Amino acid sequence: MTSAGPEPRSKPKRVTRRRAETRRRLLEAALDVFAERGLRGASIEEVCDRAGYTRGAFYSNFRTLDELLLAVADDRCEQVLERVGEILTDPGLLEGDGDAVLEKAVDTVLSAMNDDRRWWLVGTELILHAARDPRAAVELRRQRDRFTEQLIALIVKAVRRAGRTFVTPPEDVVRVIVALYDGALVQRHLEPDAVAPGQVERLALPVLLRRFTRPSAGPSAGSDE
Question: Which pTM value belongs to this model?
Answer without folding.
Answer: 0.81
